[in-house]
């Protein structure tokens, strides 16, 4: 099928995986530089496996990137994958969705063929029906359901595992306004395993599923972080607690890793937007507020741990291992590590950092205010304190004989017993014997 994707960010780029199954993908973006990179088979983001898929697709002429909406004329399906950032008050900013819908509608105006417009961007409930649909109809003069189809198909991929999540999703949620759109989308997704559950629903339920799911996951992270705080007070190891409760199959083991708080381009933004939308609709969701409040306190708690370990941080040399919001990505958006570094700088510390992928992005934020090291070993050399803030695998193999200072382990990467053997004072999130 001929698929046009508006927006070449994480979600948009990952749709290129359909090319592996024979579909033709045209990515429409605004940034000329990005477009040339994609056409050269180079993904503009770091995402394992995506480079190979792009390269194969470009060579086979199954993927291309362009900067104009004309490609829609020759398509079967158009995916809207533009950004939905937060406004100052946390509510969702739909300006890109509106512009993009109007531009798609300009193409629909002259088209005879029935195509399906699919919202894949994360949008608050009722956006597709109350905002996208009227724009498409009013600008094109065409009728939704008769002249074109409309659907909402949320994406559940995780950064770092995007390709795998795209090809082997747990479910496919197809919110549609009409049966014809459902049939066309079914045909598109037929290339994936037929046993993947498909949820046929209306567009607003599809939007709600996405927010409910991200909020549920974020709530688990805030929950275990709160338990970690309490564990620290009672000399209990949160890892043992998380492991034990996770064995109950009503709870399950995933998303129970205590840490410096969740970050990234999704959870913080989505829970805030969901909260704002609920409030706007007359609800006061206490749980959503609590998820955000617990999370907002996490980076400051990491800094307090550092203060407990070495006292005043002014003039101290602090080695920060990890800046990305999680491992296997170069993404530092809303990363708790960034808040930690900013706070350390405010307190007058000398900060030196190392991250396997996120150094370039960090330079854009911190410029010359911090020192960038080439390896974890160089980073920890002669430091007064070492803070591990991202769960990169390589930090598990940190040579402790090189560490001559207390460790603040926000991701529980280091074995506290090993630290003890090396005579290193150790403080970990939810660890029972934190130094005081
Ligand atoms: C998240 C969801 O997991 C995806 O299903 C969803 O599609 C995506 O948002 C989105 O809405 O686009 P992502 O933001 O890539 O994916 O990352 P996650 O793996 O969910 O991690 C989010 C944050 O929670 C990270 O900062 C991570 O370190 C933190 N986390 C996660 C913990 O602190 N503890 C855990 O046990 C799990």
Task: Note down, in words, how this protein is organized.
The protein has 436 residues and is α/β, with parallel strands linked by helices. 41% of the residues lie in helices and 13% in strands. It contains 15 helices and 14 strands. The chain has helices at residues 10-15, 32-39, 50-59, 95-108, 127-140, 162-167, 179-189, 203-233, 238-246, 267-280, 286-310, 336-346, 359-366, 376-380, 416-421, and strands spanning 2-6, 24-28, 63-66, 77-80, 116-119, 149-152, 172-176, 198-201, 317-321, 350-354, 371-372, 385-388, 407-409, 426-428. It has an eight-stranded mixed sheet, sandwiched between helices. A six-stranded parallel sheet has the order 11-10-9-12-13-14. Helix 4 packs parallel to helix 5 (127-140) and helix 11 crosses helix 12. The mean pLDDT is 96. It binds uridine-5'-diphosphate-glucuronic acid. Uridine-5'-diphosphate-glucuronic acid is lined by residues 122, 155-159, 214, 217, 221, 255-257, 259, 262-264, 266-267, 270, 325-326.
Could you give a quick summary of the protein structure above?
This protein has 436 residues and is α/β, with parallel strands linked by helices. It has helices at residues 10-15, 32-39, 50-59, 95-108, 127-140, 162-167, 179-189, 203-233, 238-246, 267-280, 286-310, 336-346, 359-366, 376-380, 416-421, and strands at 2-6, 24-28, 63-66, 77-80, 116-119, 149-152, 172-176, 198-201, 317-321, 350-354, 371-372, 385-388, 407-409, 426-428.
Topology diagram in text:
Blueprint: E1 2-6, H1 10-15, E2 24-28, H2 32-39, H3 50-59, E3 63-66, E4 77-80, H4 95-108, E5 116-119, H5 127-140, E6 149-152, H6 162-167, E7 172-176, H7 179-189, E8 198-201, H8 203-233, H9 238-246, H10 267-280, H11 286-310, E9 317-321, H12 336-346, E10 350-354, H13 359-366, E11 371-372, H14 376-380, E12 385-388, E13 407-409, H15 416-421, E14 426-428
Parallel strand pairs: 1-2, 1-4, 2-3, 4-5, 5-6, 7-8, 9-10, 9-12, 10-11, 12-13, 13-14
Antiparallel strand pairs: 6-7
The chain binds uridine-5'-diphosphate-glucuronic acid.
